[in-house]
Amino acid sequence: MDGITIGIIAVLVGLAIGFAVAKFMEKGKASKTIQSAKKEAERVLRDANVEGENIKKDKIFQAKEKFLELKAEHEKVINTKDKKIGEAEKRTRDKESQISSELAKNKKLSDQLEAQIKEVSYKNEFFDKKQSELDKLHKNQVQQLEVISGLSAEEAKGQLLESLRETAKSDAMSYMQSTMEEAKLTAQQEAKKIIINTIQRIGTEEAVENCVSVFNLESDDVKGRIIGREGRNIRALEAATGVEIVVDDTPEAIILSCFDSIRREVARLSLHKLVTDGRIHPARIEEIVKKTEKQIEQEIVEIGKRTVIDLGIHGLHPELIRAVGRMKYRSSYGQNLLQHSREVAKLCGVMAAELGLNTKMAKRAGLLHDIGKVPNTEAEMETPHAILGMQWAEKFGEKPDVCNAIGAHHDEIEMKNLIAPIVQVCDAISGARPGARRQVLDSYIQRLKDLEEIAFGFGGVQKAYAIQAGRELRVIVESEKVTDDKAAELSFEISQKIQTDMTYPGQVKVTVIRETRAVNVAK
């Protein structure tokens, strides 16, 4: 126990001694560290002081430079302002001197004006005195003349005026007579010159259309298909179009005969479509004919548009354009109406240019002068074509000068402007060309139209076609309104009406066709 105690004590004493030695050594090391830190701190402080002094010097130097720069700029601004103020003061002094000079001039002018006013006033007073003296002297002289001549001043003036009036009247009549004679001679020469120049500048080919069209075929085998079984196809085509179709021995050709150009064109186009399509039977024929009629109506409008564009005419009403297109399928004394109207329009334009008038209005009136020859209804056919054309032009907004020129080109109404005689002259020029018109063809077409109109005058008539050059009148009636017995009676009545009202060579065969159809649709 004592040994353990002694050992523990020895250990403790050793530990204490070791701790003391360690503490002593640590204290010595710490003192050295503290001294080193102090030296380092002193060095850092010295460096910081040196750097602070350098920074301070730099900042003071920068501040001085900034101050000097701001001072220079401020001095520059002050100098600029001083310069401007000096210039303004100089301008002010110049203005003051100028105003002083102007005031001096104005004062001088004012003094001169006052002097002139005084002088004018003095002269006015002097002239007034002189005028009163002259008036008295003139009055005395007139009184002396009246005493010498035995006439008053008014009587002498009247005699002088009467003498002058008679002399002037005689001179004026003589001058007017010579002027009128010279004007007549000059007007005739100028008119001839203008007409000759106009005719020379317009060269138009005249092609008179006949009443026959030729439909060419690729081969004669097609003729049998066009005729159909027992002729049913050709009969259906004739009934639908009102055109006589002649199928003879002419190789690869079929003749279409009709006085109406529109019906003939419908038949030609329908035949072309049927032959191209290959299906030829009565129902197909009627369908194609109806479509072709609509196509012709569209083509008529296109023809009218092309015509007005070619002539440089703008703003024409669509109905008037349609009437212009329909003129292609009408003739006047054998002369194509559209060609005639185009020629008249060009002639009017040239003649109006020669006379210094409105060329566009003259061409417009020349193109429209014969639109009354293509009436829409039978009632309109009774009105003279010039009056009907004028009514249409007024209805569709044409100018009064154009309307008057249309209505007066055959002297139905009075001419009220210079365009009207130009249209009348140009119409005569166009129609007077050798070979331009044929009276016989026009009367023949009129006779065929009269035949059809007689048929339309009876009730129940749906269509009427004059064929065989007027030797046959084919009438198609409505089956609901006309019975078989009534059809025979209608044929007799129409033939009697033709025999009574018309003059014609040979005989006219009246054929009344009544067809009954029963149609149902399977669904």
Walk me through this protein's architecture.
- The relative contact order is 0.05.
- The chain is mainly alpha-helical and 523 residues long.
- A hairpin with a 4-residue loop joins strand 6 (461-467) and strand 7.
- The protein has 14 helices and 8 strands.
- The protein has a 3-stranded antiparallel beta sheet, covered by helices on one side.
- The protein starts with a helix and ends in a 9-residue tail after the last strand.
- Helix 8 packs across helix 12, helix 9 packs across helix 12 and helix 11 packs across helix 12.
Quick structural overview:
With 523 residues, this protein is mainly alpha-helical. 70% of the residues lie in helices and 7% in strands.
Q: How large, in whole angstroms, is the Cα Rg?
A: 60 Å
**Proportion of strand residues:** 5-15%
Calculate the mean pLDDT score and round it.
Answer: 80
Strand arrangement across the biggest beta sheet: 1-3-2
Please, how many helices? 14
Order of helices and strands: HHEHHEEHHHEEHHHHHHEEHE
Number of strands: 8
Sequence stretches where pLDDT stays below 50 over 5 or more residues: 203-209
The CA-CA distance between the termini, in Å, is 139 Å
